[in-house]
Amino acid sequence: QARSALGPALDKATGTLLYNAAARLRDPKHLGFLVGYIARREILTDLQLSAALEYMRSHPLEPLDTVDFEQACGVGVCVTPEQIEEAVEAVISKHRAELLAERYHFNMGLLMGEARSRLQWADGKTIKNEVDLQVLHLLGPKTEADLEKKPKAAKARQAPSEKQKAAVVENGEVGMETRSLLEQLRGEALKFHKPGENYKTEGYVVTPNTMALLKQHLTITGGQVRTRFPPEPNGILHIGHAKAINFNFGYAKANGGICFLRYDDTNPEKEEEKYFTAIREMVEWLGYEPYAVTHASDYFDQLYTWALELIRRGQAYVCHQKVEEIKGHNPPPSPWRDRPVEESLLLFEDMRKGKFGEGEATLRMKLVMEDGKMDPVAYRVKFTPHHRTGDKWCIYPTYDYTHCLCDSIEHITHSLCTKEFQARRSSYFWLCNALDVYCPVQWEYGRLNLLYTVVSKRKIIRLVETGAVRDWDDPRLFTLTALRRRGFPAEAINNFCARVGVTVAQATMEPHLLEACAREVLNEQAPRAMAVLEPLKVTITNFPSPKALEVLVPNFPADESRGFHKVPFQPTVYIEETDFREEVDKGYKRLAPGQPVGLRHAGYVIAVQNIIKDASGRVIELEVTCTKSDVAEKPKAFIHWVSEPRVCEVRLYERLFLHKNPEDPSEVPGGFLSDVNPDSLRVVRNALVDSSVLSARPFDKFQFERLGYFSVDPDSEEGKMVFNRTVTLKEDPGKA
């Protein structure tokens, strides 16, 4: 096209513009229009070309307004050398004092930028030459001092305490992190379209009605960002859903928008009320409040009406192929694809009235998806009462049909979903456009997976059925209810999602990274207490008081302003069996004959005087003497202890699976059930804990000094508390 106007020999500048136009123009229908301007030398610079491309992206409908287009691209605008000279003079005059002071160390790019802002369509190279010339005239040639590198300004060093401060989430917001989740999501807003500018998204299909529908959409939403979190209520949410919750609710929050919690309740046989309740609980536990709680079933009447309209438009038909026949990527085409519209309308009505059995008829849409799947099912027959609509329906819509239309009804601006739904993007756009309704934009992001676990509903059910775990909230699982029961704070899970980041690629993470997030939050939030898992009785023979003493223990030793609690101290105390040895090894610093230790917070040092053993030779009691810390020689170690303790049960958890990828047949040939770790749970039934924790409620969290972080389990009863170990105080090097 260009050669027909310019001849066979094209100059390099024109060739470059043509190449860039072809490479960057998303909608090829405008290519001839754009090439005409380049060939006629009306678009001469890359700056003009960029403006032309942006104009076309913002005006997707034909015909383009030629006058408006030319004005937006600077067509016919002639910038004279005199204008460039005057603009550069004005900028240099403005910065004259700084130029004379800094000379050639001054940022010349600033001069260039300001001159270009005064003359939008001026050639950049010409402006640069004029700047160089006028600066040389003002400053003269460069001296040796000008040629020396400008010393870099020393960066203010961040205080170590600030660097090391933990990331803490409040209401879903992450603080003191390299880049908080909200900062990342505000950054994503730069990549995503603005509300109402859906047509600027690559691959978005524009129809003659698109702009009018978008205008109506903006009138309804006021230009507000709208997202939704659309779980199926047929299972418990897991750690991967935490990323989806943070992304959908967080993106709306970061951009001043709203987020719906919408249950995709289109499979009545798999849905239970407990799942609806648990999903909402987990969303709120993570710190998010839905703008509205909706259900796909709220829209069943409208979806049915649209299905009739789809048939009338010749875009859907009733099919009688069996499920087995249409499975896979290359099923045979339906022999009923071209059946008359009126016939499909009658048969679809028969489906609704229950005249077909399950699997005897489906409503299918006439399209081919990205993955090659042809004519996806829109409706199928199911004689299962629905938990909300009862027996009103015996036909239910599928995800492929329901999802995009529910998004349209709720005027969602950004339909955020995981990468596996990318193959459904074309059907998403197709269906909205086939019905001439508002079409949102589907954006995909990478799933979040963890090693050493399974999250599939089917596999968790198998674990429960075989007795490998107790239920969906067994603390060895990575469902959100299980993580809460184990004691993971919601803030830690949100922090973890922020650190994983908003990635397009799938992220598979090690559990110890989540555990590190938990330690950071619990260190700031969990008050200290003392507990002994394997008790050894210690009798103080020279106890300094005829009655029990009270010891003040700081709730947070690093910040005593956060309060204290009292624990009794009397002649009988209990320590960990592992804190005593009869023989002292090199490097061992705790209690042994001839090697005293301090009792944490008590202000006393104890020394062994007598070792009492049972008939088998096992140490069952120590008799010791005590000395006040301020007069005793400083001991090598201080150990925790309890006195007048309460018996409690402590559950110690390890990884549920032995291998990183228990579902991978190459790693675990016998299947995931064969990989269950037999030592994933150890129950200590007669542990001892100090009385300061007696008023704790389920899910309250503590740091048991020197042992780890623990959470009160809902199994706790009057007189017998149960604690779950959330994480140890330090990461096990073998797990990293």
From TrEMBL:
It catalyses: tRNA(Gln) + L-glutamine + ATP = L-glutaminyl-tRNA(Gln) + AMP + diphosphate. Residues 224-523 form the Glutamyl/glutaminyl-tRNA synthetase class Ib catalytic domain. The keyword Zinc-finger does not apply. One of its GO terms (molecular function) is ATP binding. Residues 638-713 form the tRNA synthetases class I (E and Q) anti-codon binding domain. Pfam families: tRNA-synt_1c (PF00749), tRNA-synt_1c_C (PF03950), tRNA-synt_1c_C2 (PF20974), tRNA_synt_1c_R1 (PF04558), tRNA_synt_1c_R2 (PF04557). One of its GO terms (cellular component) is cytosol. It comes from the Eukaryota. This is glutamine--tRNA ligase. It comes from Halcyon senegalensis.
